């Protein structure tokens, strides 16, 4: 690496994208992955859909318990 870099010709915000959606990877423990994969296989759907449904149901339950 250089000691100094010249940013005098740089453009502020050149690569900035407003309203961008970033999908972060989620890593499941092997036993949880197997459990969800079995459900997805039986339902003939993908893992993401099952995980999202489980999270949505937990959010609903948490809201009921909170009130």
By oligomeric state, this entry counts as: single chain
How is the biggest beta sheet arranged?
none
Q: Helix content range of the residues, please?
A: 40-55%
Are there runs of 5+ residues with pLDDT below 50, and where?
none
Shape: elongated
Task: Write up what this structure looks like.
This protein is mostly helical and 67 residues long. It has a domain at 30-66. 51% of the residues lie in helices and 0% in strands. It is built from two helices and no strands. It has helices at 30-43, 47-66. Helix 1 crosses helix 2. The chain is elongated, with a radius of gyration of 21 Å.
Features:
single chain, about 70 residues, mainly alpha, elongated
Brief overview, please?
This protein is mainly alpha-helical. Helix content is 51%, strand content 0%.
Write the layout of secondary structure elements.
Layout: H1 30-43, H2 47-66
């Amino acid at each position: 690496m250089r000691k100094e870099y010249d940013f005098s010709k740089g453009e502020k915000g050149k690569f900035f994208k407003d309203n961008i959606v970033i999908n972060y990877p989620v890593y499941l423990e092997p036993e949880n992955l197997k459990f969800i994969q079995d459900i997805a296989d039986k339902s003939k759907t993908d893992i993401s859909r099952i995980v999202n449904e489980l999270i949505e149901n937990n959010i609903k339950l948490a809201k009921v318990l909170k009130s």
